[in-house]
Amino acid sequence: MKPEKLIVDGRRLDGRGPSDLRKIKIEAGVLHRADGSCYLEWGGNKVFAAVYGPREAVPRHIQNPLRAIVNARYNMAAFSVEDRKRPGPDRRSVEISKVISEALQRCILTEQFPRASVDVCIEVLDAEAGTRCAGLTAAAVALVDAGIPMRDIPVACAAGKIDGQVVVDLGKEEDNFGQADLPIAIAPRTGEVLLLQMDGHLTVEEFNRAFDMAVEGCCKVSEIQKKAIMQRYHTVDEVIE
Amino acid sequence: MDQKTRHVVIPSECLGDTGNSRAGRGTFIDHGKIYSEHLGILTQEGNILQVVPLKGRYNPIPGDFVIAIVLEAMQSSWLVDINAPYPAVLHVNEAPWEVEFGDTAKYLNTGDSLLARVLSVDESKKLQITLNDRNLYKIKGGNIIEVDPSIVPRIIGKKGSMIANIKKYSRCRIFVGQNGRIWIDGPVDGIELVLLAINKIESEAISYGLTDRVEGLLREHAKDVR
Amino acid sequence: MTVIPLLKKEYVTKLAEDGKRVDGRAFDAYRPISIETNCVNKAEGSARVKIGNTQVIVGVKMDLGEPFSDTPDCGVLSTAAELIPLASPDFEAGPPQRDAIELARVVDRGVRESEVVDIHKMVITHGEKVWIVFIDIHILDYDGNLFDAASLGALAALLTTKIPIFRMMESGALEKKDLEAWYERTHIEEIREIYSRPDFDEIVAKKKKGIIKDIRLPMTEPPISCTAVKISNIVFFDPSLDEEELADARLTVATDTNGDIRAMQKGLAGSFTKEEIQGVIQGALDNGRTIRQKLSESIGK
Asked: Which residue from B135, C71, C86, C300 has the highest number of Cβ atoms inside 10 Å of its Cβ?
């Protein structure tokens, strides 16, 4: 049921202002078997990402003789949504997997690993709007954690329009009943846009504002990613103390 | 500067610029600035900035001593796993026996472990290893463990000091492959002591003074080794 | 496929003949177990179980639907397991393969045959409307002994599941008369407390979810499953990854609070002697008791 208003006097349903992000928590290196891994909470989203590779790409015919191929697989657990989702990829997951693979590929120094593949597995355990941004952000941390050589650490964030106002990081009701949704991913060092999708209705001016808000959001999340990665290695100080 | 840990850097972190420094391994240049490619440790030799990766698959270099596991015996070669992104090939010419075509399985088969050397790495990363050396052979007995290849230098230590200590106190034979595989053979308590030491090195790899702390650990537990 | 060096098997066997395991445990000892419940908001019930480094997350979702035609008087239980590529370099994406299917079926049987969930109490209208319980097992990190981790996870998730009465009422799938019919069959007081509230209609209309007390799944004391493997005539409980990959045979035994056996499953191509089986039963009883205690603590009993 649509709530009457999504934003009143600059306060959204969950109390946030237009440029406030939901609470984000990131932990690197949480899984034992994977070469690199990450656990991420973003608002009500709970996501695991794991990286295996680089390893020889199989079957042979998918190998690229010049560089590694990047295979990201985005999947939602059956219990991650309100109405149970049948296990297995659906068309939405396949599309998201593709755009995430393409975004990640741009940041990985794939030329160093001809004929290989870098396999990224993103598993959404609890979903609450913005899962593809959460997934990509977690995947990036897992890639760094795996020691994969990269030219940048990609990060994603969405912006949108609710009740005629442009806001960052849509929550659940905002995603369902809002007027536009714009997830983007950037390479923070250069500002290059790696992923961009939009649905809904925005004027050009609104788009520009939403884009800037999303980029600003990305920069904030990027700080959190980097902190999470460094945290893995600074706990050594405490051990020696 | 009194540092408790070495300088850890992450991919895309700016390390310097080409005006003052040179870009070494593990770095790349963009618009006159030098950036890190890896999650790793920044080292500086003269004005060359290098990043040594903290994690990642083994990157084979010809001449490296590795512990390989045979995956498959083929007609005139064996396919082996050396913990690299790619499997490697051991050709019958690089083995110390006279092997007839098709007879490879008689000498080495799936699951056998080898002390070998990396022979060559070509542009498309096709890897070859060799057993042609007195010091290289099929391993029997003992146990094999795996660590991240990036901490192998720490396990060996400056001029082999760390590994020498571990061998002394544990009374074990130990071979450390550059590919992160380590073969250990000796009394059961000795092997346990080696694992204890290696665990400590793994968790404190980036700190200073590790050699002394590990020696302390070894001395403390060595009385258990018969 | 990752190949294990043969000399590892010899090493594990040699150690065992010396009375030791690679990680120093006793032959019948488990690695540290941790159970966390209510970890997924969207699920009706959830649990995250770690046994050593093996990590599993289980989510329970519920819905209303038709019963199976041959059991019109029972709710429906459905268990699925996914060996997702996240958990191991050897797991492939795609439809469940034999290992995943066997895992799901063993956990399912453990829950179903032991009647730990009282599916007769999950009927609203005979032959027409019953509660359906979906148990989805996701392996997050594979380091040996998925059977026990998955079974324990399923139990912990089921024991903390809250039946989504409000959600079903909100969507119109469940009406007041359904609640009355359900109470008639089961005499679960909490159901009557809900529909006999004078503000019942108001709660549904105004979505005042928090006021309604949660109803748990009707459950009995669960049996606990314990798995052991055999490597060259030596039996190890709670196999680590290496031990599992070197195993010739595997045996899972589920035991209950009375010390009785409720389920058994042998796997892999090797064999067990009768004495070995009896040994596994004894080990399962001993460990089962400890694990059941842990489970009770984790669900706050």
From this structure: C86
Domain with residue B31: its CATH number is 2.40.50.100
Q: Do B188 and C8 touch (CB under 8 A)?
A: no
Q: DSSP for A104-118?
A: HHHHB-GGGSTTEEE
Residues B193, B130 share a domain: no
- Identify which has the larger pLDDT, C201 or B40: B40
Q: pLDDT at position C171, please?
A: 86
This model of the complex carries an ipTM of 0.89
CB contact under 8 Å between B142 and C7, yes or no, is: yes
Last residue of a domain, one of B138, B171, B196: B138
Nearest to C93 among A1, A55, A73 (CB): A73
Residues 164-193 of A with CB under 8 A from B: 187-190
**Domain coverage including residue C258:** 6-163+216-298
Order of strands across the sheet that contains A36-42? A24-28, A36-42, A45-56, A116-126, A69-76
C4 in contact with chain B, both atoms CB, cutoff 8 A: yes
**H helices present in chain C, as ranges:** 6-17, 98-113, 146-159, 165-170, 176-186, 189-195, 200-205, 241-246, 274-298
For strands B14-17 and B33-36, give the pairing. antiparallel
pTM higher than the cut 0.90: yes
Separation between Cα atoms, residue A185 and residue A154, nearest integer Å = 7
Chain A positions touching B216 (Cβ under 8 A) are none
Looking at the complex, report in whole angstroms how far the Cα of residue C52 sits from the nearest Cα belonging to chain B.
16
Residues of chain C below pLDDT 70: 1, 207-210, 301
Looking at the complex, does the CB of residue B145 fall below 8 Å from at least one CB of chain C?
no
CATH of the domain at C158: 3.30.230.70
Q: Touching check for B147 and chain A: CB below 8 Å?
A: no
Please give chain A's pLDDT, 241 residues, in tens: 678 888 888 899 999 999 999 999 999 999 999 999 999 999 999 999 999 989 999 888 999 999 999 999 999 999 999 999 998 899 999 999 999 999 999 999 999 999 999 999 999 999 999 999 999 999 999 999 999 999 999 999 999 999 999 999 999 999 999 999 999 999 999 999 999 999 999 999 999 999 999 999 999 999 999 999 999 876 544 444 3
Give A116's contacts in chain B (Cβ within 8 Å).
Answer: 85-86, 125
Q: How far is CA A165 from the centre of its chain?
A: 24
Smallest Cα distance from B37 to chain C, Å: 24
DSSP state of C26: -
Closest partner CB to A77 (pick from C88, C136, C141):
C136
Which amino acid appears at position C5 of this protein?
P
Residue A139's nearest CA partner among A88, A182, A92, A102 is A102
Domain count, chain B: 3
